[in-house]
Amino acid sequence: MSLVREEINMSVMTTGSFLALAIQCAPNVHPDTSLDVVRVESGMNPYAIAEIIPRSERKSGQRGFISYLPKSKQEALKIVSEIEKRKHRYSVGLMQITSTNFKKLNVTADDLFSPCENLKAYEKIITDCWLRGGTLKRALSCYYSGNFSTGQKSEPELDNTSYVQRIGYAPPDKKYVVPGTKDDQHRGNSPPVQSYERQPPSFESWDVLREYPLPPSGTLPPTPQSEKIKDDVNEQTDVSV
């Protein structure tokens, strides 16, 4: 269950401290993935809570959850106690582990307000989703909803975005003119760098003192694309008076 970050408070972790912890406590998940998930799930607040409102109790237009961003573990546990009295499901901590998973993971809400314990639980869930789903999109949907499709569907109460879009994936019908940096890195479309071997100079037979080397034979290295662009621009902007 993901949260919308509604305020900034002193309990929010820094990106650097989160990444260091993720590498230590969830080593089988790429840190980039963990960072994208935590930003959506809790805004890096280790005490974040989402109370899941049953459909039968929701008012028209109401979101399916209520976000709480306590500033201390004591305050967080008090909120959890109140939610449990209402017999509602809820999710807690950095990676928003849902209460329905507590028994299977052998953890409590108290345990999961520890950032490292929360990350360990997250690693178990998303690794299982990945192994069964086969793709990262399906794994993220599974982590969010327990199945491979719900997290890829738009949600009207969340600005008609899907969970995977909030993580960072582009909408299926969105075509950008300039691609994202991650897409570009994965595409690996940078042209290979060519190397050119320098040949020893040659001379005419009459140049006994070797004072006038001949131009090198063969094809010269091509002009870099950036230089071609500059030349084209210069030609287009060179207005004669």
Automatic annotation (TrEMBL):
<feature type="compositionally biased region" description="Basic and acidic residues">
    <location>
        <begin position="172"/>
        <end position="187"/>
    </location>
</feature>
<dbReference type="InterPro" id="IPR008258">
    <property type="entry name" value="Transglycosylase_SLT_dom_1"/>
</dbReference>
<protein>
    <submittedName>
        <fullName>Lytic transglycosylase domain-containing protein</fullName>
    </submittedName>
</protein>
<feature type="region of interest" description="Disordered">
    <location>
        <begin position="172"/>
        <end position="241"/>
    </location>
</feature>
<dbReference type="InterPro" id="IPR023346">
    <property type="entry name" value="Lysozyme-like_dom_sf"/>
</dbReference>
<feature type="domain" description="Transglycosylase SLT">
    <location>
        <begin position="22"/>
        <end position="153"/>
    </location>
</feature>
<dbReference type="Pfam" id="PF01464">
    <property type="entry name" value="SLT"/>
</dbReference>
<feature type="compositionally biased region" description="Pro residues">
    <location>
        <begin position="213"/>
        <end position="224"/>
    </location>
</feature>
